[in-house]
Amino acid sequence: MNLWQFISSKVFFKHLAIATGLTLVILFLLIKGLSFYTGHGNFVVVPNILGQSVNDLSGKEQYKDFQFVVIDSIHDPKKTKGSIVNQDPLPNAKVKKNRTIYLTIVSQVPEFILMPNLVDLTQRQAINQLEVFGLQLENIEYVPNEFKNVVLAQKYKGLSIKPDTRLEKGSSIVLVLSSGSNDAKVNIPLLIGKKQSEVHKILSDLGLNIGEEIFRDGNDTAHARVSKQSPAFTKGSVLNSGQTIDLWYSSDKKTNFKELLDEYLQQFDEP
């Protein structure tokens, strides 16, 4: 029997059908085996853990299908230490069970810097230096001096702080500035109805100090506005440069400041 006769015979087609069938069965079993081995189609959704503390992840039932590894940390004084700021994979991604999620957290170890020497700098130079070193400006105090807006001292937690003192990054510093001549006079500003940030800038620009600040409705600075000041505003009234003004704040959710200000100004319209 020659080759053509064999290929045309029933025996050849029978063996070809058997071989094809076996091949298909083997491929089917391989695909099913791989699918079972790799967990194909068995996905879980990655939870959103941004902002949570890394210490709160272990032992929680909703995280049992994941493993967590911290791969990086950053210093951010505005965020809670140990809180998660980045995750990979991202929230809502579909992954297989026991997938490792890589985390970036806010460092739990504070970052330290050395206090710069701000004495004899101008106000603007000193504030720029604070920003460069990652420090915060807490307040500005003024004292009479022949110069104006020159740093005379630097304070931390109410005490003078020397240059090169080790400080946690993000600490708040008070600058003591010269207000000009000893007999410089400034008009008392009308602060009723103004926000805390506005008041601080006005007093800083005038060379006046912030005295006691009292929040009558809690320390909600977003809604707090000045409802009382001492010394009070009167036309023509002045203070020496470097003196302080005490402030009382009330919430604009509870106080109608338009009516309060109108009533306050009426006394100056009376003959």
Provide a descriptive summary of the structure in words.
The chain is of the alpha+beta class and 271 residues long. It folds into three domains: 43-106, Trypsin Inhibitor V, Chain A (2-Layer Sandwich); 110-183, Trypsin Inhibitor V, Chain A, CATH 3.30.10.20; 185-271, Trypsin Inhibitor V, Chain A (2-Layer Sandwich), CATH 3.30.10.20. It is built from five helices and 16 strands. The strands form six sheets. A four-stranded mixed beta sheet has the order 7-11-8-9. Strands 2-5-3 form a three-stranded mixed beta sheet, with no helix packed on it. β8 and β9 form a beta hairpin. The longest helix has 29 residues, at 10-38. The N and C termini lie far apart (135 Å). The relative contact order is 0.09. The mean pLDDT is 85.
Q: Class of the largest domain in CATH?
A: Alpha Beta
**Fraction of residues in helices?**
25-40%
The poorly predicted ranges are: none
Radius of gyration: 36 Å
Strand percentage: 25-35%
CATH architecture of the largest domain, please?
Answer: 2-Layer Sandwich
How far is the first residue's CA from the last residue's CA?
A: 135 Å
Total of domains: 3
What is the H/E string? Answer: HHEEEEEEHEEEEEEHEEEEH
Give the overall pLDDT as a whole number: 85
Order of strands across the main sheet:
7-11-8-9
Given the C-alpha coordinates, what overall shape results? elongated
Number of strands: 16
